[in-house]
Amino acid sequence: MTRPATSRSKFRIVIVEDHVLFAESLELALTVEGYDVRRVAIPDKEQAPGALITAVTRRHPRVVLLDLDLGRFGDGEKLIAPLARAGINVVVVTASVDRARWGEAVRYGARKVLAKSRPLNDILATVRRINQGLQVMTREEREELLRTWAEERSGLVELEARLDQLTVREREVLAHLMKGHTVREIAASSVVSEATVRTQVKSILAKLDVTSQLAAVGLAHKVGWRPPVVTS
Description:
The chain has 232 residues and is an alpha/beta fold.
C-alpha cells in the first residue's frame, strides 16, 4: 500500500549540477510541475564535500538530483552516502555510460541512476514515483548494477596487485613513462644505460601482463595509480 503523495508545492527538490543549461532545464521542468525546486552552487575547485553537503541538507530536500561529474569540484559520488544517510532520496543524473560506476552509486545509496541522454520525462516520472512512495528501480536492475560494479572492482584489485609487484626502480620508470618520457630520456635523467632502462621496461610489461608501454600506462591510469614523484 502506498502512502498519499505530498503536495508538490511542499515537495522540495535540490539540483546539484555544474552544467548550467541542463540544471536550468531541470529546474524549469520541475517548477512547471509545481515542485519546490532549489539549486546549489558548485565550488569551482576540488575540496572536501562537507560544505556542499551542508548546503544541500540545510534546504531539507526530499529529493536530490545529482550529477557524478561536478567540474573542478570533482566526483559527485562522494555526496551520495552522506545525503542518503540524512534520509534524502538521491537520484543520479549523469552523462557517464559506465554501468560499473552506476552500480557504485547504487551501492552508496542512490535510489536511481538515469542517463542525461534519456528524455526529461524519465526524470520527472522518477520524481513523481518517489513522491508517491513507489519503487523507482526493480530488483533485477539493482542486482545487475551491483554485480557489474563488483566485477569491475574485482578486476581493479587484480590490476593493483600487479602494480604492487613492481620494484621501487620499476615504479620510477613507469612514472616516467606516464609523463611521456622516452627510454633515452629516462636513461639520461637516471644516469644509466638505455639497455638497463629497456630491461626495466621489459620487466614492467611482464609483471603487468601487457605487451606495450602504452598499455602499461593505460593500466596505471585505470586504477588511479599514483607514481612516485618524478622530478626530471
